[in-house]
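We treat protein structure as text, and this decision shapes the records that our systems exchange. The remainder of this section carries one protein's record, kept here as part of the documentation:
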Amino acid sequence: MVTKRTSIVDIKKRKGGEPIVCLTAYTTPFAKILDEYSDILLVGDSLGMVLYGMESTLSVPLDMMINHGQAVVRGSKKSCVVVDMPFGSYQGSCQQAFESASQVIAKTGCQAVKLEGGVEMADTIRFLVERGIPVMGHVGLMPQMVNAYGGYSCKGKTKESRQKVMDDAIAVQNAGAFSVVIEGVVEQLAKDVTDELQIAVIGIGGSPACDGQILVSEDMAGLFTDFKPKFVKRYGNLAGELKNAAEKYNKEVKARKFPAKEHCF
Protein backbone atom coordinates (compact mmCIF):
# COMPACT_ATOMS: atom_id res chain seq x y z
CA MET A 1 0.00 0.00 0.00
CA VAL A 2 1.31 3.44 -0.94
CA THR A 3 1.72 5.74 2.05
CA LYS A 4 0.05 9.12 1.60
CA ARG A 5 2.31 11.98 2.55
CA THR A 6 0.89 14.61 4.90
CA SER A 7 -0.01 17.72 2.91
CA ILE A 8 -0.26 21.37 3.87
CA VAL A 9 -4.04 20.97 3.59
CA ASP A 10 -3.84 18.26 6.26
CA ILE A 11 -1.80 20.61 8.47
CA LYS A 12 -4.33 23.41 8.02
CA LYS A 13 -7.12 21.10 9.17
CA ARG A 14 -5.24 20.36 12.40
CA LYS A 15 -5.67 23.91 13.70
CA GLY A 16 -7.13 23.64 17.20
CA GLY A 17 -7.21 19.85 17.03
CA GLU A 18 -4.74 17.08 17.82
CA PRO A 19 -1.30 18.67 18.37
CA ILE A 20 1.02 18.64 15.37
CA VAL A 21 4.29 16.80 16.00
CA CYS A 22 7.33 18.35 14.29
CA LEU A 23 11.01 17.44 14.38
CA THR A 24 14.04 18.53 12.41
CA ALA A 25 15.76 16.11 10.06
CA TYR A 26 18.90 16.66 8.01
CA THR A 27 19.83 13.18 6.74
CA THR A 28 18.19 10.13 5.18
CA PRO A 29 18.82 7.78 8.15
CA PHE A 30 17.29 10.22 10.63
CA ALA A 31 14.34 10.88 8.31
CA LYS A 32 13.61 7.14 8.01
CA ILE A 33 13.48 6.79 11.80
CA LEU A 34 11.57 9.98 12.58
CA ASP A 35 9.05 9.78 9.74
CA GLU A 36 6.72 7.43 11.61
CA TYR A 37 6.44 9.80 14.57
CA SER A 38 6.29 13.19 12.83
CA ASP A 39 3.62 15.14 11.03
CA ILE A 40 6.21 17.64 9.77
CA LEU A 41 9.92 17.09 9.22
CA LEU A 42 11.73 20.42 9.03
CA VAL A 43 15.04 20.59 7.23
CA GLY A 44 16.19 23.48 9.37
CA ASP A 45 19.12 25.78 8.69
CA SER A 46 20.09 24.79 12.23
CA LEU A 47 21.97 22.02 10.42
CA GLY A 48 24.80 24.52 10.01
CA MET A 49 25.37 24.48 13.76
CA VAL A 50 24.32 20.89 14.51
CA LEU A 51 26.09 19.10 11.64
CA TYR A 52 28.78 21.52 10.50
CA GLY A 53 29.86 23.22 13.71
CA MET A 54 29.02 26.74 12.54
CA GLU A 55 28.58 29.41 15.19
CA SER A 56 25.21 30.48 13.79
CA THR A 57 22.86 29.72 10.90
CA LEU A 58 24.02 32.74 8.90
CA SER A 59 26.68 30.94 6.86
CA VAL A 60 24.43 28.19 5.52
CA PRO A 61 24.19 28.35 1.69
CA LEU A 62 21.15 27.51 -0.41
CA ASP A 63 22.84 24.50 -2.04
CA MET A 64 23.43 22.96 1.39
CA MET A 65 19.74 23.25 2.23
CA ILE A 66 18.80 21.69 -1.10
CA ASN A 67 21.18 18.76 -0.63
CA HIS A 68 19.86 17.98 2.83
CA GLY A 69 16.28 18.55 1.69
CA GLN A 70 16.77 15.89 -0.98
CA ALA A 71 18.14 13.50 1.62
CA VAL A 72 15.16 13.95 3.94
CA VAL A 73 12.58 13.59 1.18
CA ARG A 74 14.28 10.35 0.10
CA GLY A 75 14.16 9.02 3.65
CA SER A 76 10.54 9.88 4.42
CA LYS A 77 7.17 8.70 3.13
CA LYS A 78 4.55 10.07 5.52
CA SER A 79 5.69 13.43 6.89
CA CYS A 80 5.18 16.83 5.32
CA VAL A 81 8.72 18.00 4.53
CA VAL A 82 9.46 21.71 4.94
CA VAL A 83 12.84 23.21 4.02
CA ASP A 84 14.27 26.38 5.56
CA MET A 85 15.24 29.23 3.29
CA PRO A 86 18.74 30.25 4.44
CA PHE A 87 19.89 33.76 5.25
CA GLY A 88 20.45 35.91 2.16
CA SER A 89 18.42 33.71 -0.17
CA TYR A 90 15.13 35.60 0.06
CA GLN A 91 15.51 38.96 1.81
CA GLY A 92 16.73 40.89 -1.25
CA SER A 93 13.50 40.96 -3.23
CA CYS A 94 10.34 39.03 -3.96
CA GLN A 95 11.87 37.81 -7.20
CA GLN A 96 15.02 36.59 -5.44
CA ALA A 97 12.85 34.74 -2.93
CA PHE A 98 10.85 33.11 -5.73
CA GLU A 99 13.96 32.00 -7.59
CA SER A 100 15.44 30.49 -4.42
CA ALA A 101 12.21 28.87 -3.23
CA SER A 102 11.38 27.44 -6.64
CA GLN A 103 14.80 25.78 -6.69
CA VAL A 104 14.18 24.26 -3.28
CA ILE A 105 10.74 22.92 -4.23
CA ALA A 106 11.79 21.63 -7.65
CA LYS A 107 15.09 20.02 -6.61
CA THR A 108 14.02 18.46 -3.31
CA GLY A 109 10.38 17.54 -3.84
CA CYS A 110 9.50 19.05 -0.45
CA GLN A 111 6.01 20.31 0.31
CA ALA A 112 6.84 23.82 1.52
CA VAL A 113 9.55 26.30 2.46
CA LYS A 114 9.97 28.21 5.70
CA LEU A 115 11.27 31.73 6.05
CA GLU A 116 11.81 34.10 8.95
CA GLY A 117 10.19 37.50 9.33
CA GLY A 118 6.84 39.10 9.96
CA VAL A 119 5.49 42.42 8.73
CA GLU A 120 8.59 43.13 6.67
CA MET A 121 8.34 39.77 4.86
CA ALA A 122 4.58 39.79 4.24
CA ASP A 123 4.86 40.94 0.63
CA THR A 124 7.43 38.24 -0.06
CA ILE A 125 5.27 35.51 1.48
CA ARG A 126 2.28 36.71 -0.54
CA PHE A 127 4.38 36.76 -3.73
CA LEU A 128 5.47 33.15 -3.18
CA VAL A 129 2.05 31.81 -2.20
CA GLU A 130 0.40 33.44 -5.22
CA ARG A 131 2.89 31.59 -7.41
CA GLY A 132 2.21 28.17 -5.93
CA ILE A 133 4.88 27.94 -3.25
CA PRO A 134 3.48 27.02 0.19
CA VAL A 135 5.15 28.99 2.99
CA MET A 136 5.56 28.38 6.70
CA GLY A 137 6.37 31.56 8.61
CA HIS A 138 8.65 32.09 11.60
CA VAL A 139 8.21 34.86 14.17
CA GLY A 140 9.38 35.71 17.67
CA LEU A 141 13.05 34.88 18.14
CA MET A 142 14.48 34.65 14.64
CA PRO A 143 17.99 33.12 14.57
CA GLN A 144 18.85 34.76 11.25
CA MET A 145 18.47 38.12 13.04
CA VAL A 146 20.92 37.21 15.80
CA ASN A 147 23.32 40.03 14.90
CA ALA A 148 20.54 42.60 14.95
CA TYR A 149 19.31 41.26 18.29
CA GLY A 150 22.81 41.21 19.77
CA GLY A 151 22.34 37.57 20.73
CA TYR A 152 19.57 35.11 21.51
CA SER A 153 16.96 36.43 23.93
CA CYS A 154 13.36 35.71 24.84
CA LYS A 155 10.80 37.94 23.12
CA GLY A 156 7.58 39.37 24.52
CA LYS A 157 8.78 40.63 27.86
CA THR A 158 7.63 44.19 27.15
CA LYS A 159 4.37 45.56 25.79
CA GLU A 160 6.13 46.76 22.64
CA SER A 161 7.80 43.40 22.09
CA ARG A 162 4.55 41.51 22.60
CA GLN A 163 2.77 43.73 20.10
CA LYS A 164 5.57 43.31 17.56
CA VAL A 165 5.36 39.51 17.70
CA MET A 166 1.57 39.57 17.44
CA ASP A 167 1.68 41.98 14.49
CA ASP A 168 4.27 39.80 12.77
CA ALA A 169 2.20 36.65 13.24
CA ILE A 170 -0.96 38.27 11.90
CA ALA A 171 0.95 39.68 8.91
CA VAL A 172 2.34 36.24 8.08
CA GLN A 173 -1.13 34.72 8.26
CA ASN A 174 -2.73 37.44 6.16
CA ALA A 175 -0.01 37.05 3.54
CA GLY A 176 -1.06 33.44 2.99
CA ALA A 177 1.28 31.29 5.09
CA PHE A 178 -0.29 27.93 5.97
CA SER A 179 1.43 27.76 9.36
CA VAL A 180 3.86 29.70 11.53
CA VAL A 181 6.61 28.77 13.96
CA ILE A 182 6.79 30.94 17.08
CA GLU A 183 10.15 30.69 18.84
CA GLY A 184 11.57 31.90 22.12
CA VAL A 185 8.68 33.96 23.48
CA VAL A 186 7.01 34.20 26.88
CA GLU A 187 4.40 31.49 27.38
CA GLN A 188 1.34 33.74 27.53
CA LEU A 189 2.25 35.46 24.29
CA ALA A 190 2.56 32.14 22.46
CA LYS A 191 -0.88 31.18 23.77
CA ASP A 192 -2.35 34.54 22.74
CA VAL A 193 -0.92 34.23 19.21
CA THR A 194 -2.29 30.69 18.93
CA ASP A 195 -5.74 31.87 20.04
CA GLU A 196 -5.66 34.83 17.66
CA LEU A 197 -4.50 33.10 14.48
CA GLN A 198 -6.59 30.88 12.24
CA ILE A 199 -3.51 28.99 10.99
CA ALA A 200 -1.54 26.39 12.92
CA VAL A 201 1.02 27.83 15.33
CA ILE A 202 4.03 25.59 16.02
CA GLY A 203 5.90 26.37 19.20
CA ILE A 204 9.55 26.06 20.15
CA GLY A 205 10.16 27.75 23.44
CA GLY A 206 6.51 28.83 23.31
CA SER A 207 3.53 27.23 25.04
CA PRO A 208 1.82 23.85 25.38
CA ALA A 209 -1.26 25.69 24.09
CA CYS A 210 0.31 25.98 20.61
CA ASP A 211 -1.18 23.85 17.84
CA GLY A 212 2.05 21.85 17.65
CA GLN A 213 5.61 21.63 18.89
CA ILE A 214 9.02 21.35 17.23
CA LEU A 215 12.46 20.50 18.55
CA VAL A 216 15.84 19.92 16.94
CA SER A 217 16.00 16.12 16.85
CA GLU A 218 19.62 16.00 17.99
CA ASP A 219 18.65 18.07 21.03
CA MET A 220 15.59 15.93 21.70
CA ALA A 221 17.58 12.70 21.52
CA GLY A 222 20.59 13.95 23.49
CA LEU A 223 23.04 13.76 20.60
CA PHE A 224 23.87 17.47 20.28
CA THR A 225 25.12 18.38 23.75
CA ASP A 226 27.22 21.53 23.26
CA PHE A 227 24.50 23.51 25.00
CA LYS A 228 20.92 22.93 26.16
CA PRO A 229 18.38 25.71 25.63
CA LYS A 230 15.77 26.14 28.37
CA PHE A 231 13.00 24.91 26.07
CA VAL A 232 14.69 21.59 25.24
CA LYS A 233 13.77 18.33 26.93
CA ARG A 234 16.11 15.43 26.23
CA TYR A 235 14.23 12.20 25.61
CA GLY A 236 17.36 10.11 25.12
CA ASN A 237 21.12 9.99 25.54
CA LEU A 238 22.43 9.18 22.06
CA ALA A 239 25.69 10.96 22.78
CA GLY A 240 26.32 8.65 25.71
CA GLU A 241 25.34 5.58 23.72
CA LEU A 242 27.64 6.57 20.85
CA LYS A 243 30.50 7.23 23.26
CA ASN A 244 30.04 3.82 24.89
CA ALA A 245 29.91 2.06 21.52
CA ALA A 246 33.04 3.84 20.29
CA GLU A 247 34.87 2.96 23.52
CA LYS A 248 34.00 -0.74 23.16
CA TYR A 249 35.05 -0.71 19.52
CA ASN A 250 38.33 0.98 20.43
CA LYS A 251 39.12 -1.67 23.05
CA GLU A 252 38.22 -4.63 20.84
CA VAL A 253 40.30 -3.36 17.91
CA LYS A 254 43.32 -2.82 20.15
CA ALA A 255 42.87 -6.25 21.71
CA ARG A 256 42.45 -7.84 18.26
CA LYS A 257 39.03 -9.15 19.27
CA PHE A 258 37.45 -7.41 16.27
CA PRO A 259 37.07 -8.54 13.59
CA ALA A 260 36.31 -12.03 14.93
CA LYS A 261 36.03 -15.12 12.77
CA GLU A 262 32.35 -14.50 12.01
CA HIS A 263 33.18 -11.06 10.59
CA CYS A 264 35.81 -12.33 8.13
CA PHE A 265 35.37 -13.75 4.63
Summary: The longest strand covers residues 135-140. Strands lie at 20-24, 40-43, 80-84, 112-114, 135-140, 179-183, 200-204, 212-215. The chain has a mean pLDDT of 95.
